[in-house]
Amino acid sequence: AAPSLKATSSSSSSSSRRPSRRERRRRAVAVASTNETETKEEDQTKRIAIVFGATGGVGQLVCAKLLLDENRRYDVVHAMCRNKETGEAKLKTKNNASPASSSSSSSTNARLRVTEVDVREEKDVEKVLDAIMTEGGEEAKVVVDIVCCLGTTAFPSQRWKENNGPEQTDDIATANVIRAARKICFNERNTSDTNNNNDKSRFVLISSVGVTRTDSMPYVILNLFGVLKYKRKSEKYLEQTQKENDDTFDYTIVRPGRLTDGPYTSYDLNTLLKATSSERRQVEIKLGDDFDPQETSRIAVADCVAFSLASDLARNKAFVIGTKEGDSGPERDGKKWEALF
Question: For the stretch 12-33, what's the b/e string if a residue is b when 16 or more beta carbons lie within 10 angstroms of its beta carbon?
Fold first, then answer.
């Protein structure tokens, strides 16, 4: 037994030996190098927002709210529209701003990128998203949140011209955006390495109240030309796509009632921010589709989108939002929005 005990003692002594000064220095350098690499990776991570339907009544307000974000959550906000010239005229702040606001306006313009895209063509959407994702180089990590504000009128109107009816807009175009986003934006390279859900990409879809109740009034009438049917079809597609790719992105579906306040389609972004800065609305949110609000403020919808993007409580949920006049609304109070979600 003696030889066995002597061997055990020798092994224990060897394993408890204090590392040499050279070894300690090598380990310290390795740790420092690892920390530096991790810091560089964090610094190279860029967070961007991409808003489809950015020149519409809700889309304009969403862009304004995301650029207004006091926490500067987004390095860049990409406004996607059919015509770049029209988009810039509606969204870029003008040069006639007062000296006091000129610095803020310049900062806003620098963070806003207006991009032309035909969402009815999936290849066009993929091409534009690919260009956005590779702006910082192939190795740059980009975390993307997408807001889809695409939509058209429930009944025939001027907006239906040139193949822009409910099926083309609320079904085909929206599905193109979802597919292209999953393929180009929501992939392993751009997925956060942390377990924090707030670091995952989010896809927010602006839909409508009544999408699951097209057999009851008044939604039977509103769905005569299929607008609610096509919106619900896109909702289901988004839900299924997320379920199949739950490690890369989450979704939030916002279902407003009859939209009020605006649309502010003739103002530049600077005027838009002033128009929305003092509005007060009581807001009510209910999960599912069993709530029938009399109206929903576009301003509240835009605020809802902005705060839901950073909220774990709004993750993978669909809800109806309604508003009414009052002074107790959440406005831009994140804690109040969290309570509503």
Answer: eeeeeeeeeeeeeeeeeeeeee
Distance, in Å, from the CA atom of 170 to the CA atom of 281, rounded to the nearest integer, reads 28
How far is it, in rounded angstroms, from Cα 101 to Cα 40?
Answer: 34
Task: Answer whether 245's CB lies under 8 Å from 182's CB.
Answer: yes
Sorted by sequence, the CB contacts under 8 Å of residue 114 that are 6+ apart come out as 54, 79, 81, 84, 87, 88, 91, 92
How confident is the model over 82-110, as pLDDT tens digits?
999 988 888 876 554 444 445 556 667 78
Rounded Cα distance, 287 and 321, in Å: 9
Residue 17 is predicted with a pLDDT of: 61
pTM of the model: 0.82
- Residues of the chain below pLDDT 50: 1-15, 33-34, 36-42, 96-101, 194, 266, 277-278
The residue count for the chain = 341
Tell me if 341 sits within 8 A of 313, measured CB to CB: yes
10 Å Cβ neighbour count for 9? Answer: 10
Is the previous residue joined to 263 through a cis bond, with omega within 30 degrees of 0? yes
Nearest 5 degrees, angle CA 37-CA 41-CA 44? 135
The count of C-alpha atoms lying within 13 angstroms of the C-alpha of 274, restricted to the half-sphere facing its C-beta, is: 10
pLDDT tens profile 207-248: 999 999 999 999 999 999 999 999 999 999 999 999 999 999
Q: Count the neighbouring beta carbons within 10 Å of the beta carbon of residue 213.
A: 17
